## 1
Amino acid sequence: ACRNLWTGACQIALAGGSGLTLPHKNGYRYQENMIHSPDGTCRPFDRDAGGTVEGNGVGVVVLKRLETALRDGDHVYAVIKGSAVNNDGNRKVGYTAPSIEGQAEVIRKAYRVANVPTAEVSYVETHGTGTALGDPIEVEALRKAFGAGQPGSTGLGSLKASIGHLDTGAGVASLIKTCKILEQRIVPRNPHFSELNPNIDLDGSPFYVVSEEQRLTPKRSEADEVLPLRAGVSSFGIGGTNAHVVLEEAPRTRPASAKGRTYNTFVVSGTSEDAIRRIKRNFVDHLAAHPDVDGSDLAWTLQNRQRRAAFRYAVEFEDAEQLRERLQESLDADEPPARVHKNARGDVYFLFSGLGAQHLRMARGLYEAEASFRAHLDECFAISTALGSEVPREVFFGDTPEAEKQLNNIETTQVLLFMLETSMARTLIGWGLKPKGMVGHSTGELAAACVAGVFSLEDGIRLVQARGSLMDTTVEGALTSVRAPEDVVRSLLTDELAVAAVNGPEDCTVSGAPRAIAELERRCAEREIKFAHIEADHAYHSQYMDSMLGRFREVLDGETLHQPKIPYLSNVTGTWITAAQATDPGYYCSHARETVRFSAGVEAILERGGTLFVEVGPGKSLSSFVRAIGRDADVTTVNVLRHRLEEIGDGEHLARAVRKLWENGVSLDWKAFHRGREPRKVKLPLYPFEKVEYPVDIEAFQRLLDGPVDGGTRVVAARPARQSG
């Protein structure tokens, strides 16, 4: 396993063993000078040692390269510095007889591989079977390998005195024990040891048998530098295979990082509602006992170990106390978990908003807290500066009435929304949230096109700045939102009016001359048709845009257009955009002039089975449109940037968005999501598996398969094993 990690053949490995003797309660006939103890007690190195006893157990360790484990914030118990294996079966006097030379050779080789002098080893976990022949031979092999040393500087111990010989599980059990010794810096006493076996000679060696619990103290080098604690582990097979591992204590655990998020998301999944309920209960108890656990560490640990099970629960939280309270509230309310269908694809569709979504301080908190979003937005500001405009940056950081007035200028609005939305989309994609498709509203389609690779970010900013600037030269106009179907709205229009957008089944935006809009609103009131006047200076997506199209086409002719790499919807046709449309400069003139067919675009997504929409612009206006369009479908919308009226911070809102995604079957690339924040893995309650007893008795096992299920758990009482007459 280590060799494959060293060579890069794998990034993580599991190594272990198990030993199981059946039936559990059995006896044996003692034979003198054989392996079993005469009285059922294993006494390694003791003068009364007469043999070992059998034990049952299983052990597994997770192995990773140290740099990878530290990067991932794993809890490191110890470091394997080197190891060696050999086989001396052809040199032994008998199949079961141990060999001094074979054992000494493998120990020497292990320390050469580890590049660790034996004088720096504070403890050796021996094979230590407690046999009259094996123990003296093993100590003599250690003496040959280590040579002379400072007396009493290297302790000897054996786990077999505590749990017996686990056969093929013995080696990993000894490894785990030694890792815990290095972690705790405490060596437990060797049970059943009172007086050294007279056949073992420790004089002139560094060894002593650990007879009482003691604390390990680091050794010093020849240059008087404090060394990390080091230990060895031996495991010898009865047929002649010998192994030795050299361990070193783990690097010091770093404290909780100050770079973690203020708000995080607790995510879990399970195979049943009861499993989720037990997870919540276990965490309530754990957090009550460990109120100081860091929120980012907790979130990172959980997010990285979740299976994609059907039942899901998530909640955003600020600290351990708030999480405990919210979990308890969920339990008290008997809140059911979300359920993700086993065939759910987890496809996500991005929504890019247009005019009207902007507000001062939009995404400011996200800019301050999220490095990836900040980098993308700073890139946009740098491009705008190079193009001769500092206005987007000034307005984004502005808080004054003048900044708000400038924000509502069409040129500033369009380009700043374009910057925010492309930055947010690129951030989400970097976090592993790759859209199956996209749909934008007016300017939002240009942001979607940029994300799809139709034009570069620089070309996109130049294009949107020109578009907004030219629109600002058109005649004065007005907009109103009418709550009625398109055919009803069109029946109310005059030559001075146009349908600027169809946002839903009964939601249209009308554009036109101010007096004509006022007259339309009067007629709507008379007919009791609901409407809402929209603050605007121009009649967008109407015949009043014609005056700017020629100059806009000149700008477009200087752009380099490419085929989209991500599918998205056309506002002009309401269907999936084609490569010919995306690369045609004339298309973007039609896009500025014609009706925005947003409703038809969403319907095209629904026809493909899409039900999960993520709004990347500020607010949730498009989300409300989508819910109205998909009212007969099981549609879910998630807005990543908060609405201006939502009284929570951007960080909490992001954590809430992650919750909604998780509960709808979508998980982020957690490593990318936490990149640069240096979270640690911490000890948390594990998954509460539903216990099922599997009896050895074949008849009881058959009843297990055929029997009724009570609360999701089968319980079978295994009968005692048959006794021979």
## 2
Amino acid sequence: MANITSIGIGSGVLTSDLIDKLAAAEREPTEKRLDAKEEEINAKLSDMGRIQSALTDLRISSRVLAQPEAVNARTATSSSGSISVTASESAALGSYSIDVTQLATNHSLSSAVVADADTTTLGTGTLDITVNGVTKSITIDNTNNTLQGIANAINGESGLAVSASVLNTGTGYQLLLTSENSGADNAISIAVTDNDGNSTDTNGLSQFRFDATQKNLTENVAAKDLNLTLNGIAITRSSNTVDDLLGGLSFTFTGTTGGPATVQVTQDADQVVERVQDFVDKYNALKEIINEVTDFDLSTGEGGTLLGNSAIRTIETQVRNTLSQPVQGLESAQVRALSELGITSDRTTGLLTLDESTLKSKLAAAPDDVTALFADQGRTDDPQVQFVRAGSKTKPGSYAINITQMATQGSLAGSVALSGSTVIDANNDTFKIKVDGTESGTITLTQNTYSNAALVAEIQAQLDADTTLRNAGKAVTVSLDGSNQLVFTSATYGSSSKVEITSVDTNTAATLGISVGTGTDGLDVAGTINGKAGTGTGQRLEAAEGDDAEGIAVDIVGGTTGNRGKVTYIEGVAERLIDGINGMLTVDGTLTSAMDTFNKQLAQIAEERAKMEDRIDALTTRLQKQFTAADILISNLKSTGDFITQQLDALAGTSSSNQ
């Protein structure tokens, strides 16, 4: 009897199709349950992703308002078309009278006209061109003694702020020289050594001479400074673009004003309103998503995907409380909460609205309070105690400051009282000084006879001119004490503030009282913040670690020891909201943890699916074995039946033949 090799052949009933249907029937309830659960969790994750994105957008908008400059936006206007002005957030509000009487100009010189720029020879020798203290010597010989050759030679000199070009006048060619920078200090001076022996005439190379005594070139435009008055004070600059006239203001002057013009710096309320409105919009976008996913429809009995979710409820409550609570430290301010700024909440939807007129009026009346409402701010009672910063661990509040030691500067005093008339000669005109650890080059005084004041000014000028100290950012001030002795004082404060004399001339000690030696080192400020000893570095005092005031730093720039009032740290709404959102979105934050929980549930569903497939596979294998065995049995029974039938048929045939 042949083996059964295909399920159902033996029976015609127990087929593979029947096994598939039985397996599908077994899979269906579990698969539907897992599919429904997976769809539900994915929907929740998707909506949490929307909330995560909305929180991120709100944090970005909050970061803008957390910067004090965002609320201190300024705009500047000018009554004159000759003055363009832009203002940064640091510009002081106010009005200024500016009268421009002269613009800065670039020096421009031109030579006489020659027949050809490339072939007409113009003599040989040396041109010594000086601009703003920089002199370059340019050799002119038979290879470059044409207009174009001279122009190329000048332009090939690096570090010489002069541009040379050849001008085609239509009747001939001229050399045109222009200073690259404007201002009187950038005037072009040209000394000539002419190989023809005459360096002053207008023949040969000397035709290009232009200095204080001989002007053989034509001065087309004189080198001039910008001259103006600001509120009646005379001002001079070398450029018509000025950004160091008034803090936070950049000016471009394009002409004279013909009289005083008015520059007005005002609060840019529209820009502040735009930034606050963006903040409100970002919050509303978040609130609308939360409303949607936590809503319950009484008519249908259906709820949002995250209805009742504790993480979303926590996030909503934390954000709402941050926006609604008064800011600590502003209890007595004109603006204490967002509601007083014109930001109100709808009782039904929780969405915010902004009243622009209220915001603008509060900006005009109390700009510092509006700034503190959003951004971090530090305030001190003592004008000589300056708030520097707070830290991430600083708690809002007011903290008492007590100073036990004022910071001092390192200094060195001379040992001889100046007589009132001091001769500086070859025996006392040089010395070296070390300031805050940096040694100067050789300080050389100009030999002359000086009054006390003039000698102090000369020493100061030479110290200021020392490139070694200047490049290292070190500075020292020279003065006279009550006994007319020279005193050298470092510009810095604290224990690193030191002054030493490292070398002197033969008679320096005798005439100036300066000898090799070290002075008195400076002292760091010392004191307490919130009753805890702080760390002093120079004039800066930082609060103790582990205290509520940790992270606060103040500069004590004057005054005396003792109680110095309080420093108040105010953490604005925007800054608090940033901290809160950061906490929600960190690895173990409220939202991240909730999303992790759902992702773990998806992983569990995947595991259940795998187990279900294993179970179905086992069922299929078992059924296949059972069906195969049944098929064999049925086949055997059919074979037996067929044999019996054949035997019966044979018996029946034999019986018929015997009859």
